[in-house]
Amino acid sequence: VFTQTSLSLLRTEKESFSHQTVYKIKRHTPLSKLMKAYCERQGLSIRQIRFRFDGQPINETDTPAQLEMEDEDTIDVFQQQTGGGWS
Predict the structure, then answer these.
(1) pTM score > 0.90 for this model?
(2) Sign of the four-CA dihedral 15, 71, 3, 66
(3) Were both Cys, which of 50, 60, 63, 77 would link to 32 (CB 3.0–4.6 Å)?
């Protein structure tokens, strides 16, 4: 049985800054656990956020093992933009 813990690094990028947070998650735990924890900590709805690994969208049912993640891999987090169009 493979029980190694994977360290996942979440990186949030906004126009003015970049922020990194480290989360520990087991390799076979759905990433929804990490995604929900991040959103709760930031006071955001999971519907407002997009998570990507190696440029690909992450599904809530994906696990680090399925995505072949390794220690210290980075998950990028993007907040959905609303408005801002020209009138």
Answers:
(1) no
(2) positive
(3) 60
